[in-house]
Amino acid sequence: MAVPNLLLRRMTLAMAAVAAAAGSVYEAAAQSTYILATGRRLPYLYAISFGDAVAPDNDNTANAIVSRGKVALDRLDGQLLGDPANLVVSEDGATVYVVNHHGAIDNAEFAQHGGRGQIAVLDVDAVLDPANDRTANALRRHLDSGAFGAVGVLLWQDMLIIANAENNLTEDGGNRITFVDRRTGSLRGMVELALGSPGFECGDYPVPYASPHGPPRNLAVLSPDPTWGCFPNSNGLALGRSSDGNAFVFTANGGTDDVSVIDLASAMEGNRLAEIGRIPAQVGPWGITATPDGRYVIVANGRSQREDRTGNAISIFDVDRASEGAEDVEVARILTGTDDPGEQTHPFIPSITPDGREIIVPNYRANNVSIVDLELALAGDPDAEVARIPLIRSDGLPARPKGSAITADGRFAVISGGAATQPYSGESGYVYVIDLQSREVVGTVTGVGNDPYNLALVER
To answer: Contact 315/297 with Cβ under 8 angstroms?
Structure first.
């Protein structure tokens, strides 16, 4: 009996030590880290205390929400406006740029696509101030995206690079990557992506558009539709770097099932035809990211805009090969969220850890999160998906994860979840915190918008 008791005591002490270590990590994070999450159909930017999010007493509550900042001024009748989807934080952490996908619209009334894209510029310190909860006090100004249906956004020098996925009042018809001055909102430049894909010719719309041709007309208003395939309709953006240091923008093209490669130096010289190549993908590329060194780009094969189906894998592209126009650019394709090649999991917005070792993939349709080992993936290992973490909602609805972000120390991933619910005024969204060491959900925040889209992390 003495040996088992001693063993039990040692196990208890070991578990306590692990818990204490985890607690110290959480306490350190509590003092400095905040989650910014876009509320999408409920147009607020949500500021969430990371430390409060992982506190056990706050699990499955909204207690960790510090403040909710408006991304547009109210309509004159008091109606909330805005459609916050993507976001990016400035290099100094002082400003957050929030993409209003269709501009300052009423989500309940704007029942279609193709609204004018808009960037809401908010002061981060003001967003984090509880005194500004449910106000527009943090909102500094709006910038026009230069086209319609803005989604992807990158920071480059003094500009925002924006992917505009749609055209005027249609979900199809987007091919504009715009360059907008951060300070003034001036449209400084534009790249027009080539039109067409295998089986789809687009002779009526030459690129670049020139009178009397364009803008696009008689296009399908909503997807899926079999007429998709002419316009790239770019979603996410990623910045890759070749081994010689040159920079390239990669666009996830949901309309043509491929990824564009843009020579950034050429684009910055005003070349509207700076697209130098296309890389075929599995289906409907949506979310996209790059490794910290920029040598590899990871794209999530999301939802087809041509037919009612989704992808189930991430693709990894070699930037050197892409910059050279090689044919073997895709160096790995990894099934995520399932072991069944026939199951549709809909990977959404991936992130990669700061050390470049693991890729975090929310699988919208599978209601789980994949962790993929990059080294194993590049080596062709079929077991490169090293963990799969289910996400649960306390109300029994599917989790529907979309966005992802990773803490600066690489220890935790945060995931947004929750499909849109009616009415849009309901705060039905979730944010999950995953410990990447234990591979477990260690905190769940409720009441985060309605169909929250993407997230970012800031330190204070």
So the answer is: no
Whole-number Å distance between alpha carbons of 363 and 308: 17
Residue 303's SS3 state is: strand
Closest to 300 measured CA to CA, from 255, 267, 259, 356: 259
Does residue 140 fall inside a structural domain?
A: no
Instruction: Name the DSSP class of 135.
Output: B
pLDDT (tens digit, 9 = 90+) per residue, 289-341? 999 999 999 999 999 999 999 999 999 999 999 999 999 999 999 999 999 99
- Give 199's pLDDT tier (boundaries 50, 70, 90): confident
Amino acid (1-letter code) at residue 66: V
78 in any annotated domain: no
Copy the structure tokens of residue 268.
Answer: 């910055």
Q: Work out whether strand 351-352 and strand 358-363 pair parallel, antiparallel, or are unpaired.
A: antiparallel
Residue 265 covered by a domain:
yes
d(CA 321, CA 355): 22
Q: Count the domains in the chain.
A: 2
Smallest CA-to-CA distance from 149 within 66, 218, 215, 235 is with: 235
Is this prediction's pTM over 0.85?
Answer: yes
Beta bridge partners of 286: none
pLDDT beyond 70 at 16 = no
Look at residue 442 and tell me whether its pLDDT is greater than 50.
Answer: yes
- Domain CATH for 416: 2.130.10.10
Domain encompassing residue 9: 1-31
